[in-house]
Design brief:
Layout: H1 2-15, E1 22-26, E2 38-44, E3 62-68, E4 71-77, H2 88-101, E5 105-114, E6 124-132, H3 160-173, E7 177-184, H4 193-201, E8 206-208, H5 212-220, E9 224-234, H6 245-269
Parallel strand pairs: 1-4, 1-5, 5-9, 6-7, 7-8
Antiparallel strand pairs: 2-3, 3-4, 5-8, 6-9
Helix pairs in contact: 1-2, 2-5, 3-6
């Protein structure tokens, strides 16, 4: 694993002199943020040793390194999912590489279905905590203590100080930022109405097919995490219409300006800006 991380990081460092402090993982339809990065070096995933390749619509499959709102950033314009058939090590490999490159904070985003009936499509939700209904953990197997502790604490998987900062930014910008618990399912089929009722009963506010593996590995690596969900549709059984990926993409397009304002506002408020 360490050799693969070193090889991927070395290739990226040859392409860009920027030393990123903040990592951005951009979910379905949210890759537009990477287009805002200045002095950008763009690297297709297939050029990076040991990187998987995105196969889902709305995931461009490029790594973008540069500056955004005065911060040195590295952005994944598209992520990997277990349902694509990749092993957990591959899904979370970019987080390991980000850590090797110097990333201290990860802003992890996704498109999700709303379970909380006070939500509506187009809302943005700050992730307070998660429930892992994928029933798989990327840390299973031998532990390399140089990468992280055998038993990482997940009491505060989503950094409380970063959440406070995000809420303050949203208030300043007049953005109605919801907050809740993200439930991760394996996919790729959408959930059934019965599954959604179950998730609501155990405390889920939104549901999706990503994020949790990356968050677990980020915390294992000592990276602070801020999570944001775009509520792309209401989950199964809440509204009468069927669910579709097209609706997810349409909603992400509709809320992109609000999403951009919020994330850029958060980056402006984080310490460590230059210029």
């Amino acid at each position: 694993m360490k050799e693969k991380i070193e090889q991927a990081a070395a290739m990226i460092q040859k392409r860009s002199s920027v030393q990123p402090r903040i990592g951005l993982i951009l979910g379905s339809g949210l890759g537009v943020l990477a287009d805002e990065i200045e002095e950008a070096d763009v690297i297709p995933y297939e050029m990076i040793p040991h990187f998987p390749v995105s196969t889902v619509e709305g995931h461009a499959g490029r790594l973008v390194i540069g500056r955004l709102e005065g911060q040195a950033v590295i952005a994944m314009q598209g992520r990997f999912h277990l349902y694509e058939g990749y092993p957990l090590e591959a899904v979370t490999f970019p987080i390991r590489v980000m850590k090797r490159l110097g990333v201290e904070i990860a802003l992890i985003t996704n498109a999700a279905g709303g379970i909380n009936e006070s939500f509506q499509a187009g809302d943005l939700m700050l992730i307070r905590d998660h429930i892992n209904f994928m029933f798989r953990n990327p840390l299973v197997g031998p532990n390399d203590s140089e990468l992280g502790d055998r038993f990482p604490d997940m009491t505060e998987a989503y950094d409380a100080d970063l959440r406070r900062l995000a809420k303050g930014v949203a208030e300043k910008l007049g953005i109605d930022l919801k907050e809740g618990v993200y439930a991760a399912m394996l996919g790729p089929s959408y959930e059934t109405p019965a599954e959604i009722r179950m998730l609501r009963t155990v405390g889920g506010d939104a549901v999706g097919m990503s994020t949790v593996p990356e968050v677990i590995v980020a915390r294992h690596a000592g990276i602070r995490v801020l999570g944001l969900s775009c509520i792309a549709n209401m989950a199964a059984g809440i509204l009468p219409q069927p669910l579709s990926h097209e609706e997810v993409m349409e909603t992400a397009e509709r809320v992109k300006e609000t999403f951009l304002r919020l994330v850029k506002g958060i980056l402006r408020e984080l310490p460590g800006r230059s210029g």
